[in-house]
Amino acid sequence: MRRISIFGATGSIGQSTIDLIKRAPDAYHVVALTGGRNIAQLARDAIDLKAEIAVTGFETCLSDLQNALAGTGIEVAAGPQALIEAADRPTDWVMSAIVGAAGLAPGLHALRHGGVLALANKESLVTAGPLLKSEAAKYGATILPVDSEHSAVFQALVGEDISRVERIIITASGGALRTWPLEKLATATVAEACTHPNWDMGQRITIDSASMFNKAMELIETKEFFGVSADQIEVLVHPQSLVHALVGFVDGAIMAHMGPHDMRHAIGYALHWPQREKLPVERLDLAKIGQLEFSAPDLQRWPALRLADEVIRRGGLSGAIFNAAKECALDLFLAGEIGFQDMAQVVELVLNRHWQNSAGSHKFDVIPLDDVLKADHTARVWARECAKTLHN
Ligand code: NAD
Ligand code: MG
């Protein structure tokens, strides 16, 4: 039996992972399931999957979780330290699907068992890619992509030599506001930014899709996963989201990966890797689909893409600053304190401040966790300050 843990089990990716696990309960021993405030879901899944321990990331939810699991024999814990302790329990396969920078520390600890870390939490790679990769190498662990685009690239690269790759193209649906007139974007509300045309995802990533911050994060993630340069990474707008990524080789060939919009494909690929197993996803009928559209992204509409390109070129702590400023700007947008397009402006102001202050520092590739966390904290403080200066 494979020992597995799921971090962020109550979220969209977590629930899709559980759907696959529940189809073959005898194949897995579930060590830890973690969630946030949805205690009923966490408790239900912990009971169904006979987990050793259930952990909520929030201390204030501890007594609810204790009550929900009283008498079941399932251990219970709460808080960021408890998430790390859960990650320290030996496992063979771990799903990292907490949203945001909160997923970094548990992922780093999970790598120490030398198994597979299935990485949905792109924020980990964006904030601390080199650290994550060096820890994986140190402990003999494998990091597998779960983001659909990166899983697609990974699959297109099987049996290929990365030095023969000319470019990697990841696709973007364009999100909820793709066809809105540019001048109307500033007025977009949370509800309007929150409906994704193709994918059913968590609220934060859905808004990040509309602003293209999700794709911007994925550009940085591409650089970290595959070690290519900024010049080799491209974004292509593809509203149908059926081609997830394309890899162009030196001989002019392009390998494209297609599939339905169902994250159980990328999750299942990471779960069964290096094998392929049958998965309960729709089979595409291309004759019925008929046409696929592609276009170049408009950088005026989506400034996040331009910022990501600069982040990749500058390296160092730029990714950590970018992610934290983006998370904070999104919090401010959700709270109604700034507008939809102000998010990119806030992130740009924070990045410029960082680059002015840090020219030439952090030449080392692998930046220690403490420095990453300090940069994360500073970027959030700066983002709040910068947001106040907008529209003055
Ligand atoms: P979600 O909001 O649906 O779920 C997030 C999970 O993280 C929940 O279990 C929540 O309880 C938990 N969580 C949130 N804050 C926490 C905290 N401070 N401490 C501990 N746990 C916390 O998000 P999602 O859409 O499932 O996305 C999860 C991750 O996967 C994100 O990094 C996202 O970018 C990535 N991802 C998601 C999709 C998708 O289709 N949903 C696709 C690609 C990548
Ligand atoms: Mg993606």
TrEMBL record:
Domain DXP reductoisomerase C-terminal: start-end pairs: 258-380
**What residues does Mn(2+) bind to?**
D147, E149, E218
GO BP, one example? isopentenyl diphosphate biosynthetic process, methylerythritol 4-phosphate pathway involved in terpenoid biosynthetic process
Q: Keywords in alphabetical order, please.
A: Isomerase, Isoprene biosynthesis, Magnesium, Manganese, Metal-binding, NADP, Oxidoreductase
Under Enzyme Commission nomenclature, its number is: 1.1.1.267
At the top of the EC hierarchy, this enzyme's class is: oxidoreductase
The residues listed in the UniProt record as binding 1-deoxy-D-xylulose 5-phosphate, with positions renumbered to this chain, are K122, S148, E149, S173, H196, S209, N214, K215, E218
Alphabetical list of InterPro entries matching this protein: DXP_reductoisomerase, DXP_reductoisomerase_C, DXP_reductoisomerase_N, DXPR_C, DXPR_C_sf, NAD(P)-bd_dom_sf
Catalytic activity from the UniProt record? 2-C-methyl-D-erythritol 4-phosphate + NADP(+) = 1-deoxy-D-xylulose 5-phosphate + NADPH + H(+)
The cofactors it requires, by name, are:
Mg(2+); Mn(2+)
Instruction: Tell me the GO molecular function terms.
Output: 1-deoxy-D-xylulose-5-phosphate reductoisomerase activity; isomerase activity; manganese ion binding; NADPH binding
Q: Where does NADPH bind?
A: T10, G11, S12, I13, G36, R37, N38, N121, E123, G202
Determine if Acetylation is one of this entry's keywords. Answer: no
Q: Where is the 1-deoxy-D-xylulose 5-phosphate reductoisomerase C-terminal domain?
A: 143-226
Superkingdom is: Bacteria
Q: Which segments constitute the 1-deoxy-D-xylulose 5-phosphate reductoisomerase N-terminal domain? A: 4-129
Q: In which pathway does it act?
A: Isoprenoid biosynthesis; isopentenyl diphosphate biosynthesis via DXP pathway; isopentenyl diphosphate from 1-deoxy-D-xylulose 5-phosphate: step 1/6
Pfam families, alphabetized: DXP_redisom_C, DXP_reductoisom, DXPR_C
State the signal peptide span: none
SUPFAM superfamilies of this UniProt entry? 1-deoxy-D-xylulose-5-phosphate reductoisomerase, C-terminal domain, Glyceraldehyde-3-phosphate dehydrogenase-like, C-terminal domain, NAD(P)-binding Rossmann-fold domains
PANTHER family in the cross-refs: 1-DEOXY-D-XYLULOSE 5-PHOSPHATE REDUCTOISOMERASE, 1-DEOXY-D-XYLULOSE 5-PHOSPHATE REDUCTOISOMERASE, CHLOROPLASTIC
User: What this chain does, per the record?
Assistant: Catalyzes the NADPH-dependent rearrangement and reduction of 1-deoxy-D-xylulose-5-phosphate (DXP) to 2-C-methyl-D-erythritol 4-phosphate (MEP).
Family indicated by similarity: Belongs to the DXR family.
* Stored HAMAP family: DXP_reductoisom
Report the protein name in the record.
1-deoxy-D-xylulose 5-phosphate reductoisomerase
* Organism the protein comes from: Falsihalocynthiibacter arcticus
